[in-house]
Amino acid sequence: MKYIFSGLLFTALTGMTACQSNNDGKATHQEPAQQEANTAHPHQQQVQTPAAAPATSKEPAATIPAFNFYKVKSGISFTHTDIPANRNTVFILFDPSCGHCQHETTSLAKNYGRLKNVNIYFVSMNDPALMASFLETFGKELVDKPNVEVLYDRNQEFIQKFHVPAQFPANYIYGPDGKLKNSWDGEKQIDYVLAEFTK
């Protein structure tokens, strides 16, 4: 039953996800209610939360939950016990095709010098083949850094245990104690992001 629900939730999330316009300026199809909700941020990628989402996903997890993701490059399992201690840990839930995710990644890469002491994990439920070249394409300065990893969420654990976001990229900052310090959905100014990641 859990797997059926997970599959339905994942299908609903991916099926309802759509950027508001492409890089070529062409708008993609969306429902009128969705168009009205997106007028303030016409390029934000929206993720509608299904009504049947687990209760724990309505608010971001207060502490880093137990999880089992997989490193995209090696396929090796990566769990909460593998996170280096004594520093902030950031999870960025992203879609490789999302323009805002790409832009945030590029901005973070350009400012890597300020992020050397922060664990940064890019997490996605997308096909690993789509994720494999994401950093090389949009964040070259982040490639092979010891504190940066791209993780595949094969079993949709993020939306079950962490949170179901309204927009991509979704950022979650946990302190050295594993407690949530801040979170937000959608792209923000890089100065704000850097300040929050390192606070």
Description:
The chain is an alpha+beta fold and 199 residues long. It has a single domain (58-198), classed as Glutaredoxin, CATH 3.40.30. Helices cover 29% and strands 19% of the residues. The chain is built from seven helices and nine strands, in the order ααββββαβααβαβββα. It has helices spanning 2-16, 32-37, 99-110, 128-131, 134-138, 157-162, 190-198; strands spanning 45-46, 68-71, 77-79, 89-93, 119-124, 148-152, 167-168, 170-174, 180-185. Strands 3-2-6-5-4-8-9 form a seven-stranded mixed sheet, with no helix packed on it. Strands 1-7 form a two-stranded antiparallel ribbon. The protein starts with a helix and ends with a helix.
List keywords for this structure.
two-stranded antiparallel sheet, 7-stranded mixed beta sheet, 199 residues, Glutaredoxin, 9 strands, AhpC/TSA family protein, alpha+beta, globular
Q: Provide mean pLDDT, rounded.
A: 80
**N- to C-terminal separation?**
41 Å
Give the CATH class: Alpha Beta
Helix content: 25-40%
Sequence of strands across the biggest β-sheet:
3-2-6-5-4-8-9
Please state the overall shape, judged from the principal axes of the Cα atoms.
globular
Proportion of strand residues: 15-25%
Low-confidence residue ranges: 1-56
Largest pleated sheet? 7 strands, mixed
Give a count of the beta strands, DSSP E runs of length 2 or more: 9
Order of helices and strands: HHEEEEHEHHEHEEEH
Q: How many helices does DSSP assign?
A: 7
Structural class by sheet pairing and helices = alpha+beta
The CATH topology name reads Glutaredoxin
GO molecular function: antioxidant activity; oxidoreductase activity
Biased composition (Low complexity): 39-57
Protein name: AhpC/TSA family protein
Organism: Sphingobacterium allocomposti
